[in-house]
Amino acid sequence: MSNTLPALPYPYDALEPYISQQIMTLHHTKHHQTYVNALNTAEEKYAQAATPKERIALQAALKFNGGGHINHSLFWKNLAPAHAKGGSGGVLKDGPLKAAIDKDFGGLDNLKKEFNAATLGIQGSGWGWLVRHAPHSSPAYILMTTALCRVSTRPPSASRSSPPRTRTRSSRTSPSSASTSGSTRSTCSI
Ligand SMILES: [Fe+2]
């Protein structure tokens, strides 16, 4: 089945003055649409491929454009109009999420720094996700990118009381992110 561009959950001008109508329109109708079109093309070629070699050759296009489509679809849902415009954007309310960010990342500002450092060198302009960890685990949330599963400037003992079941793999950080974050580390539980 062909992939389609999802509608935005708000008007193109809803995020002004932080993101302009022009940028939102361009980003959604051109940028995201391009990923959708390229993914559909790759899937059609994959369906017609006659040999394993042909299918393997399409893996990069499927991964890159499929990831772009999925990431953008999630990204739109993570944005919201500002508080001043009647929306819920720009405010981190007191609650379990804020408490976990304070505990695991040392606050929202530090999370932003770690997020930016972790995603700086990732293909596709830096996709990363704050992911809910296993129930009742510590940390409650982990920072993931396609290269890293957890990034912290603090030693493991400072951010978790008992380590979850994990495996560690080498990180693919950019020089700038490594120098910014100091003791960058990665821990994967997938
Ligand atoms: Fe984009």
Automatic annotation (TrEMBL):
Protein name: Superoxide dismutase
Catalytic activity: 2 superoxide + 2 H(+) = H2O2 + O2
Domain Manganese/iron superoxide dismutase N-terminal span(s) in chain numbering: 4-80
Any Pfam family matching the protein: Sod_Fe_N
GO molecular function, one term: superoxide dismutase activity
Enzyme Commission identifier(s): 1.15.1.1
PANTHER family in alphabetical order: SUPEROXIDE DISMUTASE 2, SUPEROXIDE DISMUTASE [MN], MITOCHONDRIAL
Keyword Oxidoreductase on entry: yes
Function: Destroys radicals which are normally produced within the cells and which are toxic to biological systems.
Keyword list, A-Z: Antioxidant, Metal-binding, Oxidoreductase
Sequence ranges assigned to domain Manganese/iron superoxide dismutase C-terminal in this UniProt record: 94-134
Organism: Mycena albidolilacea
UniProt superkingdom: Eukaryota
Family: Belongs to the iron/manganese superoxide dismutase family.
Region (Disordered): 153-190
GO cellular component term, pick one: mitochondrion
Top EC class, one word: oxidoreductase
